[in-house]
Amino acid sequence: MRILHTSDWHLGRAFHRVNLLGAQAAFVDHLVETVREREVDAVLVAGDVYDRAVPPLPAVELYDRALHRLADLGVPTVMISGNHDSARRLGVGAGLIGRAGIHLRTDPAGCADPVLLADVHGEVALYGLPYLEPALVKDEFRAEKVSHEAVLGAAMDRIRADLATRSAGTRSVVLAHAFVTGGQASDSERDITVGGVEAVPASVFDGVDYAALGHLHGCQTINERVRYSGSPLAYSFSEVHHRKTMWLIELGAEGEIGNAERIDTPVPRALARLRGRLDDLLSEPAYAVHEDAWVEATLTDPVRPDDPMARLADRFPHTLSLAFDPEGREEEAGSSYAQRLRGRSDQEIAEDFVAHVRGGGRADEAERAVLQGAFDDVRADDSRQETHR
């Protein structure tokens, strides 16, 4: 069985204020053409279909067109909601849409209700695990504690229990939206840390033949049976070295991964991160290759140059981000506030604030627990309000 695994479309997202809807439409075109040309048997979309809970109308229209085109091909599609999606909104009409072969899995309670497909070797059970906000689903799964590992583990126990009731030889696939240990993050994913921990071990998915993951934007292999497809487009300059692809997975007769092929997705424009003095950036011949790229420039001039953005735009007309890191300054003093925060979690930023107002003393263990509890409560409350809105 040939399975096309993709995720993290983030329909409606912009790139540094550049509208990406046209690029996202080109990706959908490419997806549909790949399904047709490569004789795909099932399409998997592992969450974050939209970029936010209430997406703009053009994004909804693109999503609607994508569903119609996939349904017209007659190829079953399984989608789950991610942490950016509103599960309730994405799941509206799921029963009716399912009749057209588009299976939306957005309700955690239904995670052990598979989509059953068949080929010459027998049945394949596809289980959809939507993003599980631990504080909201702990009771549903009777998890031992509020953590990603606990709720995912409990949900997988249900899936394994259902799989045990299926006929011998039934192969299994799980879609999930989570941060699995060993995955490499980028700047464009939303923090999902709970209780100071965001990652879950890959062993959570033991017992199934393939785990199609979403959330991390880089295509990567945790192990042969646990993979991230990554996002089809770059959504931050931290993804400058990503090769954007989808996985085409061949599931063999015994559930083995017969072949795993990366299918490249269309690149609307290359990314470039340039660093140096302004005059060097404007004169260095080696930078000519980046003249048509989206550029993030960090200027290291000791004194801030006059009108730097306009001057950069003369050579690099698609410059989207400009930062300053003057030579000769201490790192902390010379970096911007945004640079100092880059890559830091909400928890770490809050602890730094405590140290700042205290005059250098770090937050102790009890204070860190209070801060983490506050962040967990806010995240859960936001999700709860979205659920009932």
Give the SSE layout.
Blueprint: E1 2-6, E2 14-15, E3 18-19, H1 21-37, E4 42-46, H2 57-73, E5 77-80, H3 87-90, H4 94-98, E6 102-105, E7 115-119, E8 122-129, H5 134-141, H6 148-164, E9 171-177, E10 179-180, E11 199-200, E12 210-214, E13 220-223, E14 226-228, E15 245-251, E16 257-264, E17 271-276, H7 278-283, E18 294-299, H8 308-315, E19 319-324, H9 331-334, H10 337-341, H11 346-358, H12 365-388
Helix pairs in contact: 1-2, 5-6, 11-12
Tell me what the structure shows.
33% of the residues lie in helices and 23% in strands. The chain contains 12 helices and 19 strands. With 389 residues, the protein is α/β, with parallel strands linked by helices. A 6-stranded mixed sheet has the order 6-5-4-1-15-16. Strands 7-8-9-12-14-13 form a 6-stranded mixed sheet, covered by helices on one side. The protein has a 3-stranded parallel sheet with strand order 17-18-19. The chain starts with a strand and ends with a helix. It is globular.
Quick synopsis:
The chain is an alpha/beta fold and 389 residues long. The chain has helices at 21-37, 57-73, 87-90, 94-98, 134-141, 148-164, 278-283, 308-315, 331-334, 337-341, 346-358, 365-388; strands at 2-6, 14-15, 18-19, 42-46, 77-80, 102-105, 115-119, 122-129, 171-177, 179-180, 199-200, 210-214, 220-223, 226-228, 245-251, 257-264, 271-276, 294-299, 319-324. The two termini are 40 Å apart.
